[in-house]
Here is the input.
Amino acid sequence: MKKLVKVRFKPTGKVYDFDSGAFVLKCGDRVIVETDQGLGLGTVVVPPKSFDEQQYDRLLKKVFRLVNEKDLCQWKRNCDVEKSAETYCLKCIKKLKLRMHLFSVESSFDGSKLTFFFTSEGRVDFRKLVKMLIKELGVRIEMRQVGIRHKAKICSGMGRCGRIVCCAAFIEKFEPVSIRMAKNQNLSLNPTKISGLCGRLMCCLTFENETYKKLKKRFPKTNKMVMTKKGRGKVLRHNVISNRLTIRLDDGQEVETGLDEIIQEQKRK
Here is the structure.
């Protein structure tokens, strides 16, 4: 039976499936694999496991070989080329007065192609720029315009929580984020407090939302009348993480109490 291994090409990039063949691999091993763009250098993130070929509607590409010293030298050369290409491209952009923000350059493993990533508020006519790059660098050139979220993922950075931003740490695919998710989590609706480095709503609102929705099912709805040890009152707010509620009693006093300390009143007939 064939074995499947999961490989990642970038520290925070998407994980891809490959046929490991007869190679004995472990997490952290660097390998050369076959891709649609030719050979690529990646890192094993999940060791080989047996799999059912019928589960896949396509033939998995194979691990070509383990990385050797020559491959590492090629990778280092690619890194140097990426830096020099980025510097030259920035000069060309300034010379042509193009309204675009170049932030990353990636080289194919064999060095035959360079991809330039940039953001822009609108469409950019970069035909002259491409001609200048081809003349100077002598390789195939691809200009790729991406959204501001993808820029944050590639560039990385520290979030307001003090950790590496989620998109650069572990998120492989962006999911829709809405302001309602912030409301469900009782967060401030101030855009500056619920927005990430990219200026968009924080990605953590999405993957934490389901947990909040599940926890909230145990709580009486806001504006619901409940009984507490201090008397009858109306539910104002939930604190689902600490299992507590804020209640306004009939005399106008606001109190905070635990979820297990209240008795929800039955609806009057």
